[in-house]
Amino acid sequence: MSDRRRADPGAESSDPRPKPSPPPSVQAGGKARGASGAVSADDGAAGRATRGRDQDAPSRTPRKRRRRRRRRGSLPDRAIVFVGPMAAGKTSLGKRVARELGVPFVDTDAVIVREHGPITDYFTAHGEEEFRRVEAEVIAAELAVPGTRIVALGGGAVLTESTRLLLAGHPVVLLMTTQEAVLRTANLARRPLLRNDPAAWGRILEERRPLYEAVADVTYRTDRATKDQLARRIAQWARSYRKRLPEAGETKEQR
């Protein structure tokens, strides 16, 4: 019988005894384990390094994205100036843009009123030439303040050459509108040049238009969109604004 058992090739396969378990070295995904079942120091270090790389990879990407977003969204490090004709919305829109950007707002006409009294009274008592001199001094002082903020100028501020030269070094937003819109919404009693002749608005605009366009970097029509829409558009433009500083005496027309 022993001879037959040795000659029968299937004799061993029919043995009902269970086969021994595979050695510990091939268990748990092939990681070698000692008698206690702990992963070896080398394998553990390799696993920790692999897990560290896997955990670090996604965290580096968001940081890079955040840095790129901050670079794209950086604001100019100086005043963003609003110019335009009387009653175009420089003050009301300037305040909204300042809130949108989280920066201060300054209205140079309000500074003049605080320091010299109502503009209409000062205009009447001292004349336009003296008023423009005072206006230019106030504007120069406000534009010299470092940091980002919105500064709204009076409608005639661009008439002064020294002011135009200063504006060459700042982002300038030109707000335009129509005479019909102004006469419908403006308080003419506060506008010394319009109080006795409301139709003068159109004539004054045509005289000043070349000066506005010479100092402006971008133009928005305030009669074609809501103030909230315009505030968002201007804020987006300000965040993407890039320009070089002018040479001494250089104007925007000469660039």
UniProtKB/TrEMBL annotation:
It comes from Leucobacter ruminantium. The lineage of its organism: Bacteria, Bacillati, Actinomycetota, Actinomycetes, Micrococcales. GO terms for biological process: amino acid biosynthetic process; aromatic amino acid family biosynthetic process; chorismate biosynthetic process. Gene3D superfamilies: P-loop containing nucleotide triphosphate hydrolases. InterPro entries: P-loop_NTPase, Shikimate/glucono_kinase, Shikimate_kinase/TSH1, Shikimate_kinase_CS. GO terms for molecular function: ATP binding; magnesium ion binding; shikimate kinase activity. The keyword Amino-acid biosynthesis applies. CDD domains: SK (cd00464). Residues 1-18 have a biased composition (Basic and acidic residues). The keyword Nucleotide-binding applies. ATP binds at residues 87-92, 191. It is found in: Cytoplasm. This is Shikimate kinase. Residues 61-73 have a biased composition (Basic residues). It comes from the Bacteria. Keywords: Amino-acid biosynthesis, Aromatic amino acid biosynthesis, ATP-binding, Cytoplasm, Kinase, Magnesium, Metal-binding, Nucleotide-binding, Transferase. Catalyzes the specific phosphorylation of the 3-hydroxyl group of shikimic acid using ATP as a cosubstrate. Mg(2+) binds at residue 91. Pathway: Metabolic intermediate biosynthesis; chorismate biosynthesis; chorismate from D-erythrose 4-phosphate and phosphoenolpyruvate: step 5/7. Residues 33-49 have a biased composition (Low complexity). Substrate binds at residues 109, 132, 155, 208. It holds the Pfam family SKI. One of its GO terms (cellular component) is cytosol. Its main location: cytoplasm. It catalyses: shikimate + ATP = 3-phosphoshikimate + ADP + H(+). Belongs to the shikimate kinase family.
